[in-house]
């Protein structure tokens, strides 16, 4: 059975700020090369979006 995601359009407004926050937090790690920094920023953006997904899905359970 596939999981059911309950998305509304206003829930998606959380994804962009969380992705930016993840990119800034993880991208702030000092590394030697520019490509590694960009890779960390991309990974941080994905991690931030996944955290936003968890928050959006957990809110109805908590309320």
Record the SSE blueprint.
Elements: H1 15-27, H2 34-62
Helix pairs in contact: 1-2
Give the key terms:
mainly alpha; elongated; 2 helices
How would you characterize the overall build of this protein?
By secondary structure, the chain is mainly α. It has one domain. It is 67% helix and 0% strand. The two termini are 25 Å apart. The model has no long low-confidence stretch (mean pLDDT 85). Keywords: Membrane, Transmembrane, Transmembrane helix.
Strand percentage: under 5%
Pairing-aware structural class of the strands and helices?
A: mainly alpha
Work out the helix count: 2
| Number of β-strand runs | 0
Any low-confidence stretches, pLDDT <50, length ≥5? none
Count of structural domains: 1
What is the straight-line distance between the termini?
Answer: 25 Å
Radius of gyration: 14 Å
The main sheet comes to: none
Which overall shape is indicated by the principal axes computed on the Cα atoms? elongated
- Output the helix-strand order: HH
Helix content: 55-70%
Instruction: Kindly report the average pLDDT value.
Output: 85
Summarize the structure in short.
The protein is mainly alpha-helical and 63 residues long. The chain contains 2 helices and no strands. The chain has one domain.
